[in-house]
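re: the backbone from monday

yeah here it is again, tokenized this time
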């Protein structure tokens, strides 16, 4: 199915959860990540159960160190 991540069209498997998506994108660590789906923030506690749907618009922010 197709979703949008930071305005980039992306193909993912059906019934992917937010946690599965983040594991797919960031195999090393999910620390410092914030996610919004269709302009609504998704709390980390909901990541395992929040299933993505076709055409969802995801905003993904990853904190970085530095200054």
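seq for it, each position gets an aa:
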């Amino acid at each position: 199915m197709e979703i949008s991540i930071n305005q980039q069209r992306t193909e993912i498997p059906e019934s992917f959860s937010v946690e599965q998506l983040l594991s797919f994108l960031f195999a090393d660590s999910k620390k410092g990540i914030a996610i919004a789906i269709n302009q609504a923030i998704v709390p980390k506690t909901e990541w395992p159960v929040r299933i993505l749907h076709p055409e969802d618009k995801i905003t993904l922010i990853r904190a970085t160190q530095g200054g």
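The longest helix spans residues 18-25. The chain has a mean pLDDT of 92.
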